[in-house]
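Notes to self after the call with IL:
- keep both proteins in one doc
- input above output, always
- annotate only the second one for now

Protein 1:
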Amino acid sequence: MPADTTSAPAELNEAVAMEEAVLRLQQPVEALLFVASEPLSIKQIAKLARAQETEVAATLQQIATDYTYRGIVLREVAGGYRFATSPLARDAVEAYLLPAKTTLSIPALETLAIVAHLQPVTKSEIEAIRGVNSDSVVSTLLDRSLIAEAGRKEVIGRPMQYKTTAFFLESFGLRSLDDLPELELEPGQPLELNLLAPSGDDAAPPAAMDESQAGEDEAGEEAEDANEESGVESQEQNPENQAP
């Protein structure tokens, strides 16, 4: 029996229609991605561009291909899509956007890692892990919008809990919290958290990973380090603070 060829014209027509939709949508979708202050989902773009989600997905794929080797690339982060500067242009972008020192301090990274892996988590729980007062560093992370309040814990005193934000995911290039590195602990091993911190040249400064953000004043973070160290020293030198 001869092969059924009736489906071939229909498939061809669908392919042509999709190509036309991509050509029609590419400019408005690029414009939306350019002006958006946060990642846009396919559903949001489809609604704004008055298009089908399948058409938007195909358009995003075409845009990603077109921008592969440019200074601007399309990234999928925090459940959506947005334009970002290419990693290959990082040095030039950082030289323009950032002052001399804008990376998060070690205490800030420690605290951010604890919140990311254990959220929602209270300040006292953070301090129990770090062993020092964390008021200043939590305030720094709140100011930078890397963490946010997550409601009060239903225990005595009802302390505030904290969680990471969508900006945290965006800044570190994570699609979701599932992309966080897993903790590998031996029984009885102290909890030491290392948040997405590869060593070497590939490790981009956390505060610099979002290209739209300028650096914060680092003096406060240096002061908090000094306060933590001085607090520990004063407890060691004051015999009244020692256990009998």
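Protein 2 (the one to annotate):
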Amino acid sequence: MTAPIRRRTRAREIALQLLFQFDLRGDDYGDDLGKTPAQLCADECQGAADVLEFATRLVEGTLGHRTEIDVRLQAVTRNWDLKRMANVDRNVLRMAIYELLYCNDVPPKVAINEAIDLGKKYSTANSGGFVNGILDRVRLDLEKERAAGAAGKTASAPAAAASAPPPLDADSHELGA
């Protein structure tokens, strides 16, 4: 007997199936069916509100940030044209990169491991290593960017304090007094 599937894992599977359809059929896929991404997710969620919420968040977020995600994906897959990549792998990667960028409630290792499992389950046996290699590179790049951003904020804090107007004197009741 197999263990019951975890809720977020199920949400990722639903999201992947819909992202695959949007990628294959075009951006108007939902409109052609007269449904929003949330309604398409609801059709698959069987009434589980938390599954619906997370699946919808993944689909809408990935679609909404697809251009940015594809630029980042293309940067780490230098010799791969995204259109040549297997449709399942491309969408697993897009969704995982969305999670790495925008889902602060999902630890990076979880997003990567879930993506590896989806690749193995829905694509080829080689997809796991392919997905892992690309997502690990994206994760490292993001860590560097965030560290550089945090260092930049820390370095600019003294300069900002020096250029700020002096605090009001506690004994002063008027500006300029």
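Annotation: Residues 7-144 form a domain with the N-utilizing Substance Protein B Homolog; Chain A fold (CATH 1.10.940.10). The first helix runs from residue 7 to 25.
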